[in-house]
């Protein structure tokens, strides 16, 4: 069997086109241009690639974007001062502080300093709590992208056995919260789970976010299951180059699964599209308007 490939790149493009239409409406009808500010501390080259594509796609969707690049030795106090300034700036609707941060900065303190209404990553404890309480909130981008991709295969997730492999605050836990909201039956599995392979094999929907290259093999997957691979791992490739692989052994999994997301071109592009959607939502709410639903 050969799995259907879930084309995250194309699905994200369609979503960004819809965001552009809604952003144009907000600008025309209400005179508000959604604005995203990305803050990057240090010069990790991989981080800079993400930031560049975020900034480019933000502009293409008709949103304003600004970027603050701070030196790697920036103090926590200086970063907190910048966040206070951005919180107070009415032209800034979304603030994203690129993670990970250098070790002299406490990331948790930084996240908690962001105005929850501008927290387009959905990492602030207020948004975490609201998501888990089933209240409206800014929802983390990658988890939102995972669920949107799963719904292209299963428009109704009700009653499905979903297994989330990974329990991080940025992907595993929020993806599980969203799947519960979709009425799936959710198991969160992780490195300490007993019989991990068998637990995964029970999944109709398997979301993998562990950060271990190609850890999930073909025989971990129920025949016909839908597999969402959140991993983006750079590994040595041919001729001294590097290549990107997911947390799932794609070649093996594609023989067993019913549908699967590739890496690259799966969850990654959806993360950025959902960031734009969150920025639009934050801008609409700040202006007292009903935000569009995607
Ligand atoms: N506060 C914060 N929020 C984030 O959302 C955040 C972050 N920090 N730190 C870094 C990670 C990583 N991340 C990615 C987003 C899109 C792609 C993406 O679009 N990847 C493409 C291409 C990858 C490539 O070719 O290098 C793909 O998967 O097809 C990847 C990675 C967001 N992150």
UniProtKB/TrEMBL annotation:
Which keywords describe this protein according to UniProt?
Amino-acid biosynthesis, Histidine biosynthesis, Hydrolase, Methionine biosynthesis, Multifunctional enzyme, NADP, One-carbon metabolism, Oxidoreductase, Purine biosynthesis
Which reaction is the catalytic activity of this chain? (6R)-5,10-methylene-5,6,7,8-tetrahydrofolate + NADP(+) = (6R)-5,10-methenyltetrahydrofolate + NADPH; (6R)-5,10-methenyltetrahydrofolate + H2O = (6R)-10-formyltetrahydrofolate + H(+)
User: InterPro entries attached here?
Assistant: Aminoacid_DH-like_N_sf, NAD(P)-bd_dom_sf, THF_DH/CycHdrlase, THF_DH/CycHdrlase_cat_dom, THF_DH/CycHdrlase_CS, THF_DH/CycHdrlase_NAD-bd_dom
Gene3D superfamilies from the entry? Leucine Dehydrogenase, chain A, domain 1, NAD(P)-binding Rossmann-like Domain
Record domain Tetrahydrofolate dehydrogenase/cyclohydrolase NAD(P)-binding: where = 140-284
What EC numbers are recorded for this enzyme?
1.5.1.5, 3.5.4.9
Record keyword Manganese present: no
Q: Which GO terms describe its molecular function?
A: methenyltetrahydrofolate cyclohydrolase activity; methylenetetrahydrofolate dehydrogenase (NADP+) activity
Pfam families reported in the protein's UniProt record: THF_DHG_CYH, THF_DHG_CYH_C
Instruction: Summarize where NADP(+) binds, as residue positions.
Output: 166-168, 232
* Pathway the protein contributes to: One-carbon metabolism; tetrahydrofolate interconversion
Keyword check for Isomerase:
no
**Sequence similarity:** Belongs to the tetrahydrofolate dehydrogenase/cyclohydrolase family.
Role description: Catalyzes the oxidation of 5,10-methylenetetrahydrofolate to 5,10-methenyltetrahydrofolate and then the hydrolysis of 5,10-methenyltetrahydrofolate to 10-formyltetrahydrofolate.
User: What's this protein's name?
Assistant: Bifunctional protein FolD
* Natural source organism: Flaviflagellibacter deserti
Q: What is the lineage of its organism?
A: Bacteria, Pseudomonadati, Pseudomonadota, Alphaproteobacteria, Hyphomicrobiales
């Amino acid at each position: 069997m050969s799995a259907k490939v879930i084309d995250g790149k194309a699905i994200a493009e369609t979503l960004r086109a819809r965001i552009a239409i809604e952003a144009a409406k907000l600008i025309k009808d209400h005179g508000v241009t959604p604005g995203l500010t990305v803050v990057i501390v240090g010069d990790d080259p991989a981080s800079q690639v993400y930031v560049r594509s975020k900034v480019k796609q933000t502009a293409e969707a008709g949103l304003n974007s600004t970027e603050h690049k701070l030196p790697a030795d920036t103090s926590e106090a200086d970063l907190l001062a910048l966040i206070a300034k951005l919180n107070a700036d009415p032209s800034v609707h979304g603030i994203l502080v690129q993670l990970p941060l250098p070790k002299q900065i406490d990331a948790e303190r930084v996240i908690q300093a962001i105005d929850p209404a501008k927290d387009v990553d959905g990492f602030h404890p207020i948004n975490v709590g609201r998501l888990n309480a089933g209240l409206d909130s800014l929802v983390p981008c990658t988890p939102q992208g995972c669920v949107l991709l799963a719904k292209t295969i299963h428009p109704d997730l009700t009653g499905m056995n979903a297994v989330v492999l990974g329990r991080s605050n940025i992907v595993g836990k929020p993806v599980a919260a969203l799947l519960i909201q979709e009425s799936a039956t959710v198991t969160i599995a992780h490195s300490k789970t007993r019989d991990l392979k068998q637990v995964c094999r029970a999944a109709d929907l398997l979301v993998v976010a562990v950060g271990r290259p190609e850890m999930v093999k073909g025989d971990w997957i129920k025949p016909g299951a839908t597999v969402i691979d959140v991993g983006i791992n750079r590994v040595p490739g041919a001729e001294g180059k590097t290549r990107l692989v997911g947390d799932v052994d794609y070649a093996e999994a594609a023989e067993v699964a019913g549908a699967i997301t590739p890496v690259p071109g799966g969850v990654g592009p959806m993360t950025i599209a959902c960031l734009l959607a969150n920025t639009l939502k934050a801008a609409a709410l700040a202006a007292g308007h009903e935000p569009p639903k995607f």
